[in-house]
Amino acid sequence: MHSWDFLAWIGAAISWWGTARYIVGIVRGNTQPRLASWIAWAAANGVLTGVALINHNDTAALFNGLAALGNVSVLVLSGIKRVGERPDGVTDRTCLAMAGACLVTIGIFPHLVYLDALLAMCANVIATWPTIQHAWLRPQEETWQLFAANGGANILGLVSVLSASGMGIGNIAGPFISGLGNVALVSITVGRNWLIRTAEEIDEDVQLLEERLKEGTTSAETE
Predict the structure, then answer these.
(1) What is the pLDDT of residues 89-123, one digit of tens each?
(2) Which positions ≥6 away from 183 have C-beta within 8 Å?
């Protein structure tokens, strides 16, 4: 094992910690995954794992494979608990179509590394969009710790893969594109929750001020 593989293991452990937090949220009923996103993420990470294995990039295969396993775990638990937003609408259908295209392409053209990796990257980006929408509309139904953990894990994974296997697109595609998506999701989920809390606090202050003004007006009329 390459000495840099240790970083990939640390990154995978961090990512799985985030996945565990997400799973706890699902079990408690606080988290509602956007299932189309998770299906496409699982397909994309599975394809990138296959690309890495075909090209004997063990570090990239390890990192992407564990990510795919985490995606599948969330999907299985969502099915068991019967939670999550079912695929619906053009965006979700596009996610599923890209996931299918990735799997079909690597099945037919397993050695077209660039094509397989690019399709998987596109699937990952498209998969992130429904969850971005969900995080913006209902941030309380997403677990930001997962995205933060995955973002940190992606950075470690990228450094490890670059050091062990080089700059090839089949090597860096997984941690690079996932890292960008996770940073966006953390920013939106945390930022949107802050905006909602701030708006609620302002509403409470306005209501309190209105009540005090009414009390003052009533007192003046009484006098």
Answers:
(1) 787 788 788 788 878 887 887 777 677 677 777 77
(2) 147, 151
